[in-house]
Amino acid sequence: MLIDSTLRESGLHALLRRPVTRAALVAFCAMASLVTSLPVRADASNGQVQESEPSFRVEPVSGPSLLTRVRTGIASSSFGRLGLQGRVPAEIAARFPNGRHAADDPGWWMDDGFELSGADLYRLNCRSCHGAVAQGLGEVIPSLFDPIKASSPRYVQERMERRGRSISDEVAEKLARGAELGLRHRLLKGGQTMPRFAHLEQREVDALLGFLEVLSGVPGERATLRVRQPAERVGEHVVMATCLICHDSTQGRRRPVADRDVPALSSFTVDYSIEEFVRKVRTGSPEAGKTRGRMPKFPYLTREELMAAYLYLAAFPPTEDRRQAAEN
Ligand code: HEC
Ligand code: HEC
C-alpha cells in the first residue's frame, strides 16, 4: 500500500521511537501532513480494497484549558479524574471489541488508522468526566442514563404508562426525537462548564450513542456502528476532550515542571520523547518507576492512542486561539 511504504521509507517509524529533535520534528510534521492528506484505506482482507470513507477534518487544539476558563484549581475539581471509577460489565465490553490486534506491526495505527466502536469514542471523549459507565458523580457531573432513556420511544411510552397515562407511538417518537436533539445540541454547544464537542461528526456521535444505549439498557440499532479514522483524529479526541481540561494549549512553564506548574500542550512534543509522554499519561511520571502526583493516570488510554495524541500535537501544533488556527 502506498501510505505504508512511503512512511517506512521516510523513517517515520524509527523517528517515533526516539526523542524528537527540532529538525526531526519539522520533517515529522511535513510527513504527517502527507498522512492526513491521504485517505485511510480499509483492509484488503479478501484481496479487495474497500472504498475509503470521507476523511475527517482535523484542527489544532487552541486556547486556555477548561479549568483556566472556569477559574478552578486542579486540586478542587473532579473534571478529568473519573475515568478510573466504575467498570464496564464484561458482557457489554464483549459487544464492543477492539478493532485492532496487529501486535506484529507496531506501526499499524499510523499506517491504517483506528477502527473505533461507540465504546472507544465514549472512552476517548467522555469517560474522564462522566466515569467508565456514564455514572457521573453526584451533583457535580450528571449520569447520562436519563437523557439516553428519554431519547428512546419505548422508554418514554413505558414511563408514561407507569404514571397511568398512555400516549400514541407517534407522540412517543416525537418526544424521544426531541430528547435526542437536545442531547446532540448539548454536544454541539457544551454546557455551563462541560466543554463543546462541536468537532464530533454525526457518524461519531451515532456510534457513541449506540454504546450509551447499551449501557442504559435501552434498545437500539446503533451498537454495532464503527468508525474508521486516521491517527491524527484519534489524537484530536484524546487531547481536546481530556488533556485540554487541565493543560492550556500554549501557556505554561517548560520542563522541568515544579509544584505549581502545568506545562502547555505545545511543549509536549518539544520537551518529551514519545516514550516519556506515553509513560507519564499511563503511569503518572515521565521517568520510569516514579510518580509525580497531581495529574491523574489514564491507563485506560492505550499506548497507540497516546502515540496518536503525540502525532496530532506534532502535526497540528497547538495555537493561542481559534482565529490564529484558522489563519494558519
Ligand atoms: C470536562 C468534563 C466533561 C466532559 C469531558 C464531558 N462532559 Fe458531559 N457534562 C459535564 C458536566 C459538568 C455536566 C453538567 C453541567 C453542565 O452543563 O456543564 C455535563 C452534562 C452532560 C449532559 C446533560 C445531562 C443532563 O442530565 O442534562 C450530557 C447529555 C452530557 N454531559 C454528555 C456528554 C458526552 C456524550 C460527553 C463526551 C462526548 C461528555 N458529556 C463529556 C462534564 C463533562
Ligand atoms: C486533571 C488535570 C490533568 C489532566 C486531565 C491531564 N493532565 Fe497532564 N499534567 C497535569 C499536572 C498537574 C501536571 C504537572 C505534573 C504533575 O503534577 O503530575 C501535568 C503534567 C503533564 C506532563 C509533563 C510530565 C511531567 O510530569 O514532567 C505531560 C507530558 C502531560 N501532563 C500530559 C498529559 C496528557 C497527554 C493528557 C491527556 C491525556 C493530560 N496530561 C491530562 C494535570 C493534568
Task: Give a written overview of the molecule.
The protein has 328 residues and is mainly alpha-helical. The chain has one domain. The chain has 17 helices and 2 strands. The protein has helices spanning 2-10, 12-15, 22-37, 66-69, 90-93, 108-112, 118-125, 127-130, 145-150, 153-162, 169-189, 202-216, 231-246, 268-271, 274-283, 303-315, 322-327; strands at residues 114-117, 226-229. A two-stranded antiparallel ribbon has the order 1-2. The longest helix has 21 residues, at 169-189. It is globular, with a radius of gyration of 21 Å. The model is unreliable at 1-30 and 32-50 (pLDDT under 50). The chain binds heme C (HEC) (2 copies). One heme C binds at residues 66, 79, 125-126, 128-130, 141-142, 144, 146-147, 183, 186-187, 191-195, 197, 241, 245.
Taken from the alpha-carbon principal axes, the silhouette is globular
Strand content: under 5%
State the separation between the terminal residues, measured CA to CA: 31 Å
Mean pLDDT over the residues: 84
According to DSSP, the number of beta strands is 2
Bound molecules: heme C
* Unreliable stretches covering 5 or more consecutive residues: 1-30, 32-50
Number of helices: 17
How many discrete domains? 1
Share of helical residues: 40-55%
Strand order of the largest sheet: 1-2
Q: Major sheet, described briefly?
A: 2 strands, antiparallel
Alpha-beta classification: mainly alpha
As a whole number of angstroms, the C-alpha radius of gyration is: 21 Å
Order of helices and strands: HHHHHHEHHHHHHEHHHHH
